[in-house]
Structures are given as C-alpha cells and as structure tokens.
Structure prediction request, 230 residues.
Amino acid sequence: MIRIALCAETENYGKKMEERIAEWAFQGRLNIQKKIFLTGEELLADIEQTGYYDIVLTDICLQGNLSGIDTAFRIRQIYEYFCLIFMSGEERYYKEAFRLCPFRYLEKPIERSYLLESLNQAVDRYQMLHDIFVFRYKGMSYCIRLSEVLYFVSDKRVIHILMENGREYLFYGKLDELEKELLKYSFRFYRIHQSYLINGRQVEQFHPRYVVMRNREKIPVTRTKKSWQG
Prediction:
C-alpha cells in the first residue's frame, strides 16, 4: 500500500485534489491510503502517530505557522525517502523550494494530465527505492516486497512467485523479460535454472547441483548456471 499525504491551502482545493488522486488510483488499480491536511503541524503530528508517507503533495502556502517548505524540511530531517511534490501558483518560491530537492514542482492551476503523469512517476520512484515489485493478474494489481520473495518460477506462460511467508502469486509473463526488469532493483535475483530466478539473500545452503532456500526447499542448479555464485 502506498501512503499519500495531501497538504492543501484550502479545504475545497484539498477535496478537489483528493478526487483526482482517487480517480488516478482507481484507474491504475493501485492500493493507496490518502489523507488531507490543512496545516503542516497536522501533517507532522500525524506522521509521529501513524508513520511516514511515501508521497507528500503540499501547497507552499498553508494555514498555520508552517509553510509547505518548512513542513517538508522538518520531514526531511527525520525521514529522507519520500517523494516530495510542491504545488504553488507563485514563482517566487521556486528557488527556495528546490533546496529540498523535490520530485516535482507543479504550477497552479495544475493540469490534470501533468498531475497524473507526476503521480505515476512518483510511484515508479517509490517502487525502486523500496524494492516494490508491481504486477497484474486477472485485472488486479499487486505490490510485493522483493526482499520477501524466495523465488520466481516459470511454468509455460505463467510465472509463480513464492514468498517467504508461504504465500504464492501468479502473473503472465516470460522469465527472460522478468530477469531483465529485476536488474533495476537493488535486490539481486539469480537465474540458476531455466525456470527459476532465486533471491540470493534467501539461500541457506549451496550445493553443486542444488541450493536450499530458507523454507528448506531444494532448487536445482543447471550446469550452465553453476558459475552464478562467483
């Protein structure tokens, strides 16, 4: 689930943006949790109680004593890995805002297409930072942490994902294409067999012809893949 905080200058504008975010999430079949705030103080208090947000969209001018820039600075001091998107109708804040390295600076009035594009790109960045793998199966989108994956195994055109908690997911695809896609993540997966991509951090024992995963399952190693360890 992706947590999104929206800090808006007015309640009406906040509700308008919330509707657009909800529409975007529905169309993309994304599992999100969103919340509107009217002051930076409210957002900081909520973070202290419920945890950090993955994406923060904030107006620069807010009600309360903290501006959007002040609020973002305080969040950055305690948590760096979130996508920060500023919203403003005034150019005079541009240089000051960019000292915080925001992901986007959206000028008001914000075009709907540009907002959706920015949100899509923010999600892509979030997935790479947190090693979140997203896939679709039978019209539904799923998000999993690659650190919790034991292995991917291909059976014809269906790829099975086995998780460390024993849960299994399915999606349609080719293992060759998946192997290339996984290279952009920090978690390394190894092709030890024509049909298997294993999580190197989930291997418990190494043997010449097989590896033992942490769930005690043995996965075969083909002769052409024996050099993967070194």
Observations:
- The first helix runs from residue 11 to 27.
